Amino acid sequence: MDGWIKLHRKISEKPYYAKDSEKVHLWLHLLLKANHKPKTEMLGGKPIICNPGQFTTGRKQLSNETGIDENKVERALNFFEKIEGQIEQRKTNTNRLISIVNWGLYQIDEQQMNNKRTTDEQRMNTLQECKEIKNSIISPLSEVKVEKSEKSETPEKPEKTKDPIWQLIVKTWFDFYQQKFSVEPTFKPGDAANLKRIVSIAKKRAEKSGTEWNEENAVKWFNAFFSNAYKFDWIAKNFLIPNLYNQIDKILNTSNDASSNTAKVQHISKNRRAASAMAVLSDLRKELGGDLGQGTFKDPETTVQQPIAI
Question: For the whole model, what pTM was predicted?
Fold first, then answer.
C-alpha cells in the first residue's frame, strides 16, 4: 500500500472522537483502504469495478488488520452508515463493498485540482475573448439608449416564508433523537421528504378528529409518535425517518390498541365490583333468613341497574 490520504479537521468535531478511539482508528483505516482509482475486485464471488472511495473487505479481515474485536467492527460500521452517514455498505455472504461518502469532496489530489483549475481558467479566458469580439462588431445603433418603462421591469419575487410548524417538527425530531442516542441524527433530502409524508398523515388525522393543527398540537403529536415508535425493538435499533414512515401503520395502531385495552380493563373492573357486591348481599340474605325482599344493586360508577333475585 502506498500513497497518502487527506484528513479533514472536522473529524475532531465528531462526538465519538473524544469518547471512542476504536471508531477513530477504524475510520482512518477505512480511508487508507479505499481505492484512489478504479480497480477490479471480487464481491460475492463476482468481479466488480470499485470506483475511487470504494473497496471490498469483510468484518473478520478488518478485525485482523486493526486489532479491533469483530463485533465492535460490525457495530462501528453500522454506526458510520446509519448514524453518521459516512459510509454505505453492500453486503454478501462472503464479503462486503464499502463506499466512503463524499470521497471526491475531501480526497481529490493536487494534480486533479490543478488540472481542473487550469481547465476552468481556460474556459473563462475563452468566454472573455468571445465577449470582446462580440462587443467589437455590435452595430452602432445598439449604442442608442432605450429607456425601459416601469411596467416592463420584472417584479421581484417575494421571499418564501418558512413554515414555523415544520421547523418545530424538525426540532422535535432532533431533540428526541439526541435524548435517546446522545448524537445528532442525519437529515438528508430523503429524510425530509419522508417526514413531510408523515406530517401529511398527521394533519389528515387531526382534521378527521376535529383537532386544530397548530404548533402545540403538532409537537405533542410527534412526541407521542416518536415515543410509540421507540417501543418496538427493531425500530429503536434502526431509528431512521424512512423506517418510521414505512412502519407508520404499526406505530399508529399501537396507540389505538392501548386506548382499546384501557377501556376493556375499566369495563372488566366494573363488572367485577358489581359481582362482588352481589355476592355480599347474597350472604347477608342467607344470614338473615332471606328477609331482604327484592331490590336492585347500583354500581356507584355506572348507571346500569341489575335486579337481585332473592
Answer: 0.39
